[in-house]
Amino acid sequence: NYLGEAIEIEKKKLKIHILSREKNFSESPIKLILIQSLSTNEKMDWIIQKATELGVNQIYPINSSRSIIKLDKERSDKKLMHWRQIAISASEQSGRSIIPEIHSPISFPQAVNQIQLDNEALKIILAPNSVDSFDKANTHRASTIVLLIGPEGGFSDEEIRLAEQHQYFALKLGPRILRTETAPLCALSILQYKYGDLS
């Protein structure tokens, strides 16, 4: 955080003299990456806003086999600008010093194959039919955690198998099936409580 005073104001330029600075302690000690299947406008806006408030560092919107929303290049570019503005506002509101990076939409195979992660990253795909819960992740301490969330109809069996082949843990949140906009907020809260700074 910086404290400063304006010393020169022009039509399209502002000069500020920095008086003091201090570290912002609002950033989580873990790096959170959300890979979210595309959903309707209001739901995606909600997810991006709340995920930003919960400390996510990167968001990858994806097209999965059951995604209802499909975006062409022009619509994708417009949505990306809109989502980035939501992330900026949510970062300001929550006192964060880092604005999450929101990437252009990609396909599910691209997400599991091409997103570059360190070898120690904990990778989770939500799968309501899994026999394993989030307790299984307790034995995996990682500085980076990736969370893969499905669309309204969930991921297909083939998608879950593909993710598992890329070292994703298929985990369930509990006995109830959550909506696509509820699941990331619940999972991110659990992960921040277990490994981050929620208490």
Short description:
This protein is an alpha/beta fold and 199 residues long. It is built from five helices and nine strands.
Could you give the order of the helices and strands?
EEEHEHEEHEEHEH
The N- and C-terminal alpha carbons lie at a distance of 23 Å
Strand content: 15-25%
Poorly predicted segments: none
Would you count the extended β strands for me?
9
| Structure class | alpha/beta
Instruction: Work out the helix count.
Output: 5
Structure characteristics:
single chain, alpha/beta, seven-stranded parallel beta sheet, two-stranded antiparallel ribbon, 5 helices
Please explain how this structure is put together.
- The protein is of the alpha/beta class and 199 residues long.
- The chain is 32% helix and 24% strand.
- The protein is built from five helices and nine strands, in the order E-E-E-H-E-H-E-E-H-E-E-H-E-H.
- It has helices at 41-53, 73-94, 108-114, 157-165, 183-195; strands at residues 2-9, 14-21, 31-37, 58-63, 101-102, 106-107, 122-126, 144-149, 169-171.
- Strands 3, 4, 5, 6, 7, 8 and 9 form a seven-stranded parallel β-sheet that branches.
- The longest helix has 22 residues, at 73-94.
- The chain is globular and about 60 Å long.
- The chain starts with a strand and ends with a helix.
- The mean pLDDT is 88.
Helix and strand arrangement:
Layout: E1 2-9, E2 14-21, E3 31-37, H1 41-53, E4 58-63, H2 73-94, E5 101-102, E6 106-107, H3 108-114, E7 122-126, E8 144-149, H4 157-165, E9 169-171, H5 183-195
